[in-house]
Amino acid sequence: MSLTSCDPKVIVALDFDNQNAANELILKLDPNACRLKIGKEMFTYFGPDWVKKVVALGFDVFLDLKFHDIPNTVAKAVKAAASLGVWMVNVHASGGPDMMKAAIKALKETGTNRPLLTAVTVLTSMDQNQLDSVVGNIQISEQVKRLALLTQECGLDGVVCSAQEAIELRKVLNNDFLLVTPGIRPIGSKTGDQVRIATPLSALQSGVNYLVIGRPITQATDPLSSLNDINASICHFAK
Ligand SMILES: O=C(O)c1cc(=O)[nH]c(=O)n1[C@@H]1O[C@H](COP(=O)(O)O)[C@@H](O)[C@H]1O
């Protein structure tokens, strides 16, 4: 039995180097049970036409290319992403306010059916030591909060962060500002390179809107059953 919801919380991260393997999984999935994320690896190998094919199957697609460049370049890049019909696209908040404002302005100009725009705060693979080596003298939670508030001020729709930061962020951000969280690990699954992790249920209980989950589903012996188990564990949150 597949558990479905009209607002699926799980975004399956399709990080495959083989298009047939990805297509095989996609054909088993139901757009009412999950959204899909296409990232740098698959976009670089298989390109925009493949993204359009996945969109045409009825899935909400998060095109995760994490743009980080000068404002003019990023504005044009998000506009190009919108032309593929994707549901969400993202930038790095550390690209700064001018870049984020240019990106949301460019998307708004594409019309009312534009993709959502989110900004990555501090990658979920980073711990305090790694952040210290890039930005000194600030706790991860403070840096995430600073970048999330900046993202909101710039008019974007939400941030990508760790679920570990969600409770504190919900205290300072608008209720409709989206929290999208990778680093989700069901109990018993391998952590891999993720550091700031949470379970699907605890993430949603902390005020997260969407869960980005890759390897715990895509590398499972039975990916569909892994997704169904996750959806069953969070069915209380399905609208
Ligand atoms: O923007 C992202 O999606 C992202 C941001 C972040 O801070 N951490 C992070 O893991 N991601 C992405 O989320 C996915 C997580 O995959 P798994 O670790 O396999 O569940 C990967 O595709 C990452 O590129």
UniProtKB/TrEMBL annotation:
GO cellular component, one term: cytosol
CDD domains recorded: OMP_decarboxylase_like
Keywords assigned by UniProt, alphabetized: Decarboxylase, Lyase, Pyrimidine biosynthesis
Domain Orotidine 5'-phosphate decarboxylase: 9-230
Pathway this chain belongs to: Pyrimidine metabolism; UMP biosynthesis via de novo pathway; UMP from orotate: step 2/2
Catalytic residues of the enzyme: D64 (for ompdecase activity), K66 (proton donor), K66 (for ompdecase activity), D69 (for ompdecase activity)
Catalytic activity as recorded in UniProt: orotidine 5'-phosphate + H(+) = UMP + CO2
UniProt cross-references to SUPFAM superfamilies, sorted A to Z: Ribulose-phoshate binding barrel (SSF51366)
Binding site for substrate: 15, 37, 64-73, 124, 185, 194, 214-215
EC code: 4.1.1.23
Gene3D superfamilies referenced in this protein's UniProt entry, alphabetically: Aldolase class I
NCBIfam families: PRK00230.1, pyrF
Function: Catalyzes the decarboxylation of orotidine 5'-monophosphate (OMP) to uridine 5'-monophosphate (UMP).
UniProt cross-references to PANTHER family, sorted A to Z: OROTIDINE 5'-PHOSPHATE DECARBOXYLASE
Family of the protein in this entry: Belongs to the OMP decarboxylase family. Type 1 subfamily.
Descriptive protein name: Orotidine 5'-phosphate decarboxylase
Protein's organism: Brumicola pallidula DSM 14239 = ACAM 615
Lineage of origin: Bacteria, Pseudomonadati, Pseudomonadota, Gammaproteobacteria, Alteromonadales
